[in-house]
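Form 7-S
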Amino acid sequence: MSNSSNNNKGEMTQKGRDTLERFKMESASELGVNLKQGYNGDLTSREAGSIGGRMVQKMINSYKMQ
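Output:
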């Protein structure tokens, strides 16, 4: 059995990481949450959760529009 077919399973490309980071920053900006590059350990759980929730909401809306 070839191992090459499983080499990329679960891995994200740099392009994918960059896209997700831009999406996260955009969502935070829409919510008025001051998100900076790198570590954001000073965010409250509510702020962090609202960013993730907004991202999911936008993904669902995008899927519904297709």
